[in-house]
Automatic annotation (TrEMBL), chain A:
Pfam families: RabGAP-TBC. Gene3D superfamilies: putative rabgap domain of human tbc1 domain family member 14 like domains, Ypt/Rab-GAP domain of gyp1p, domain 1, Ypt/Rab-GAP domain of gyp1p, domain 3. This is Rab-GAP TBC domain-containing protein. Residues 105-327 form the Rab-GAP TBC domain. It comes from Suillus luteus UH-Slu-Lm8-n1. PANTHER family: LD44506P, TBC1 DOMAIN FAMILY MEMBER GTPASE-ACTIVATING PROTEIN. GO terms for cellular component: Golgi apparatus.
TrEMBL record, chain B:
Residues 179-208 are annotated as: Disordered. This is GTP-binding protein ypt3. The keyword Transmembrane helix does not apply. Residues 197-208 have a biased composition (Polar residues). It is a lipid-anchor. The keyword Lipoprotein applies. Transmembrane segments: none annotated. Belongs to the small GTPase superfamily. Rab family. One of its GO terms (cellular component) is cytoplasmic vesicle.
Amino acid sequence: MVVGDFEIEMERAASTRTTVNPDQGSIKSDAMELVDDPFHRFLHSPQPLPEPRFNHRMGHSPRSSDAEKLLRESSIRTNRRIKFIDCLSKDDVNISELRKLAWAGTPNDLRAAVWPILLGYLPLPSNLRASTLARKRGEYSSLVELAFARDRQGLDQQIWHQIEIDVPRTRPGVRLWMQASTQRSLERILYVWAIRHPASGYVQGINDLVTPFFQVFLSAYIDSDPEEFDTSLLPSAVLNAVEADSFWCLSRLLDGIQDNYISAQPGIQRSVKRMAELVAPAPLYVHLESQNVEFMQFAFRWMNCLLMREISVKNTIRMWDTYLAEGADAFSQFHLYVCSAFLVKWSEKLRQMDFQGIIMFLQSLPTQDWGDHEIEMLLSEAFVLNSIWHNAQSHFNAK
Amino acid sequence: MAEYDYLFKIVLIGDSGVGKSNLLSRFTRNEFNLESKSTIGVEFATRSINVDGKTVKAQIWDTAGQERYRAITSAYYRGAVGALLVYDIAKHATYVNVTRWLKELRDHADSNIVIMLVGNKSDLKHLRAVPTEEAKSFATENELSFIETSALDASNVESAFQTILTDIHRIVSSKSLEQSADPIRGPTSDTIPVAIDSSTPATGSKCC
């Protein structure tokens, strides 16, 4: 797609020279500056952002109406980017303005700066950012040091055992996640989080939730596909920063859904029950009931892994732009509306199926080809459901 | 849709990482995946096989091994007529935990459930940590059937499922001669899925 290429082109132009290693990926030349200041690239860049080079890209004479459409679309993108950068450039970021922008998706190259702000990991005033980052990363590295101070026998055996089993099973087959250096990072993130949260400890599926953060932060430092990247090539300061930032952002996310992972997983029980109530008015609900399908049989995983077993990491990243923009409780609240909309999406097919067909279908949904468009449709449906339900609630409450 | 004589619900249980999901995929799809994702909650698959001239459809629920999921997964024991309790022959701790899994079944499953102890990963001969004889005598003492399998090289997987389904079928068919228990309707069929425990309510029972 030309529009997509066009954006990549812009991002390439925006970045500075890179250390190219075609086989293993390339590290951006300003990676070290970026470690200290995630805003460095687009706020202090010596030359202004490049203007889109329409003529060059349109060289192969497309029909004029297509060209106009592409022009329009890319100018919308450019405008959105400019708005983001304006918003991020303020001495004191206006969080509601940033939320509004991020709800509709964050440009790829700005995400590593936007997500930490939305999560409250990075402070809004620009003059506090560098010191906060340095402090949090230092804190993380001492947590790691403390946790692994003694040899293996010093670790909490039960937690470590489960992490050891699951780390090689995280995104199996994806080069980034099959590498020893990435796996060691993931182990440290999961273990340190687990021992700091003894009520839940490590629960299977939390490993999946690390991957979007890690990939988003990693992509800020490199010029190639993060899933193909060899993390052992990174300077240790960069890898440490990616790891620490992933840890703190994961912690923030999990703070909002702790009940999902404590004994008996009451958060999930509640969410699944609530989701069934939300779907109840739909004709699909009657069919599921008639087939004795229980929501717990499929929706448990949707809650436990935040749909990450149902959609790609790329899809998840786009989805989290909106979740993070929605606010702290989106991963427990807005997520319910997303899950409801997600289920209803397959209504027509599901209503033709019997118990076995339904369960098997919901276990491996055909979302392989999903892109931003499908995710954005889902998010808007969830938004509508959310508003309808809230209006209804306040209507009932008023009576 | 309902081209079978019996529908048996089976659960796959055992510690994390012993190969439950691969046993299931080997049996139902003849697939093995060296690096598959962990199972979250439960996963489901079916396959029909011939047992003593009858078509038996196995409806198999594969469960997550981690302790934290126990509250969720134990709900699936209800109505199960068979359980494959899996350990890893190369990891002694997974064998030690078999006792805990048996207690789980006693607490949550029907009392007549047929249990088979399965020592998986028999291809890892050089790493064996649980002697076959030890497991075999443990199984005998606890009235479990026993088999060693390898989902990786496919050895004995077919046989494990065939054996447990045959055992269940024999018990069920001898029972139905003794007593004319009300057939229990499954959600998917008009034939007779069977629960061994005839005290299971005949109506409103959710097969799964």
